[in-house]
Specification:
It is built from 4 helices and no strands. The chain is mainly alpha-helical. The chain is elongated. Keywords: Toxin-antitoxin system.
Length: 88
């Protein structure tokens, strides 16, 4: 895949040196190290954003509530109303 987009960021000297040392430790260019780190974090965040976490008791209560139908008085009224069309 061709890389055409650019991102610029400002860092303090200590952070830049730390990133450079880490990139050197894994034998990568700084830009590649930052790209991979950003991609990994974005991937984790997006994976978590598609989940809803809740305690087991809350989940059980939610599932039980789904099994109990609402009264739905408006739906009952609509179903009992005369039909505008008839089938042959």
């Amino acid at each position: 895949m061709t890389k055409t987009e650019r991102v610029e960021l400002r860092l303090d000297k200590d952070l830049q040196e730390q990133i450079a040392a880490a990139a050197d430790a894994v034998d990568e260019r700084v830009s590649e190290f930052i790209r991979k780190a950003a991609f990994d974090r974005a991937d984790r965040i997006l994976a978590l954003s598609s989940r809803t976490l809740m305690p087991a008791a809350q989940f059980d209560a939610m599932m039980s509530a789904l099994d109990v139908p609402d009264e739905a008085p408006e739906l009952r009224k609509a179903a009992a109303a005369p039909r505008a069309f008839t089938r042959r």
